[in-house]
Amino acid sequence: MKIVVDTHTHTLASGHAYSSLLENAQAAAEAGLALLCVTDHAPSMPGAPHFWHFANQKILPRFLHGVGLLRGIEANIINPAGEIDITPQVAEHLDWILASFHEPVFRPADRETHTQTLLNVIQSGRVDALGHLGNPNFDFDFERVIKAAAECGVVIEINNSSLSGSRVGSAPRCEDIASLAKELGARITTGSDAHFAADVGNFTSVKALLDYVAMPEELVVTANAQRFLAFLLERGHHPIPEFSGMTS
Questions:
Q1: Name one GO molecular function term (predicted).
Q2: 73 pLDDT exceeds 90?
Q3: Considering the chain, what is the average pLDDT of its residues?
Q4: pTM (2 decimals)?
């Protein structure tokens, strides 16, 4: 399966990543990507940038090295109410909002707490995708959450870094999540979770998993640039005129 959008990448601004946006864009071009989402960690994460970093993304060009840039964020889920750490005023100007559990921000609790938290995140309508759900520190009811995501139009991330060992114990859980997403008709997004430019657009493990579970191509929003942009419009984001000619 061809994947042309990387929806989860970090720059030096995240505090524990090692490449610039220019370097990431160059790597994205070399990987053959059409679109690259810039998703630095939101302010609650230790070492993350101030909210001004996200509000000021409007100055970024829409293309670098021929790759379309999407102004985004990896927001932190901050409490069981499903709130995230970015204001609606800043979110209004972003193209893409990914939300994830992170141990320094949300202390791992029990399965039911995690499940209800994720349901609240989905039902808030404030996020487009749920990130690296395979993390075993945040167990949850896969069926309830994935069914809710499908019903509410929130996509489930399959994270290459999780599959490659960054979150020990994630791989078998990601397989179960992907299989259930296929069964329930939940759509999938693909993120490298790159913290170094060489990993941008690296979907080796993601592709292997999607092939293994025979994921239908039409459920993968990142398999086609037009499909991904149509998804963003569906989520209520503003149209991006500079990308109107994209066909791949």
A1: phosphatase activity
A2: yes
A3: 97
A4: 0.97
Provide the residue range defining the domain that includes 119: 5-236
195 marked as binding residue: yes
Is residue 132 marked as binding?
yes
Q: How confident is the model at residue 168 (pLDDT cuts 50, 70, 90)?
A: confident
53 is in an annotated binding site: no
50 labeled part of a ligand binding site = no
What CATH number does the domain containing 148 carry? 3.20.20.140
- Indicate whether 247 belongs to any domain: no
pLDDT beyond 90 at 42: yes
- Judge contact between 27 and 36, C-beta under 8 A: no
- Which residue shows structure tokens 């302010």? 43
Tell whether 242 is covered by a domain: no
245 inside domain: no
* Angle in degrees, CA 98, 67, 235, rounded to 5: 35
pLDDT score for 125: 97
Annotation-wise, does 16 bind a ligand?
yes
